[in-house]
Amino acid sequence: MTPHRPRLVLIVALSLIAILFSACDVEPRKTDAELGLNPQQAAGRRVYDAHCADCHFAYSKSNLKGPSLNGLFKKPFMKNGMPANDDRVTDIIVLGRSKMPAFQNKLTQQQLNDLMAYLHTL
Ligand code: HEC
Question: 43 C-alpha to center of ligand 1: Å?
């Protein structure tokens, strides 16, 4: 055995541990550019991160405190059975729904427009 072997073994072991841990982690956050977001959609993503991300996943299908919003506008109906259109989704955001708080006084019209533009990309 060469004198360097133990160190090599240690490095390999540590790398394997690092790889294992990173594999358990959530998938890395994509940049706005990687997601192909235009400036308004990117602004909407900031609103989403600040106000919605605690309760809703945008890219995972799993539910958090609220249902995943992935593919929200891709199907005719939301999980709650309401039509997945701008009017109904805006109502839920503005008025709230059961355990979801109302955002009436928390978002400006501009923020709401940006947020809707972003939700359409999911
Ligand atoms: C405190 C947690 C919480 C926050 C913050 C929150 N929501 Fe919700 N949301 C919920 C819950 C819980 C539901 C399920 C309500 C029900 O019982 O129908 C829900 C439902 C929804 C729905 C209907 C989804 C479906 O498929 O039925 C939409 C759309 C939605 N939220 C959008 C948003 C957006 C956009 C934001 C940010 C502005 C947001 N929510 C912030 C908890 C939250």
Answer: 19
Instruction: Judge contact between 103 and 51, C-beta under 8 A.
Output: yes
The residue contributing the CA closest to ligand 1 atom 19 is 66
Specify the CATH number for the domain of residue 89.
1.10.760.10
How close is the Cα of 47 to the center of ligand 1, in Å? 14
Q: Is 66 in the pocket of ligand 1 (CB under 6 A)?
A: yes
DSSP structural state of residue 59: S
Report the mean per-residue pLDDT for the chain. 89
What is the distance of C-alpha 55 from the center of its chain?
A: 10
Domain that holds residue 56: 38-122
Number of structural domains found in the chain: 1
pLDDT tens digits, 92-118: 999 999 999 999 999 999 999 999 999
- Determine whether the shortest distance from the Cβ of 89 to ligand 1 is under 6 A: yes
- Name the residue with the closest Cα to ligand 1, atom 11: 66
> Is residue 17 very low, low, confident or very high in pLDDT (cuts 50, 70, 90)?
low
Is residue 93 within 8 A of residue 103, CB to CB? The reply is: yes
